[in-house]
Amino acid sequence: MKLRQFNLYWIRSPLTVPYKLSYQTFEEFEPFVVRPRCGRPN
């Protein structure tokens, strides 16, 4: 099985309560989502 494509998504979602650390306050959650595709194209 070979990987033929990757889709990369950057999602920005606001937090209901800001998350505070000593160096920064986060008001949004910003994960990266990777969707690998394999096999023959449809």
Describe the protein.
There is one protein chain. This protein is mainly β and 42 residues long. The protein has one domain. Helix content is 0%, strand content 67%. The protein contains no helices and four strands. The strands form two sheets. The chain has a two-stranded antiparallel ribbon. A two-stranded antiparallel ribbon has the order 2-3. It starts with a strand and ends with a strand.
Write the topology of this structure.
Layout: E1 3-10, E2 13-20, E3 25-29, E4 32-38
Antiparallel strand pairs: 1-4, 2-3
Question: What's the quick description here?
Answer:
The protein is about 0% helix and about 65% strand. The strands form two sheets. A two-stranded antiparallel sheet has the order 1-4. A two-stranded antiparallel ribbon has the order 2-3.
Compute the number of structural domains. Answer: 1
What value does the average pLDDT take? 90
Oligomer: single chain
Number of helices: 0
User: What fraction of residues sit in β-strands?
Assistant: over 45%
What's the helical proportion of residues? under 10%
Derived structural class: mainly beta
Give the topology string: H per helix, E per strand: EEEE
Distance between the termini: 15 Å
Poorly predicted tracts of residues: none
Strand order of the largest sheet: 1-4
From the alpha-carbon coordinates, what is the Rg to the nearest angstrom? 17 Å
Number of strands: 4
Shape: rod-shaped
Largest sheet: 2 strands, antiparallel
Task: Pick out its properties.
single chain, 42 residues, mainly beta, two-stranded antiparallel sheet
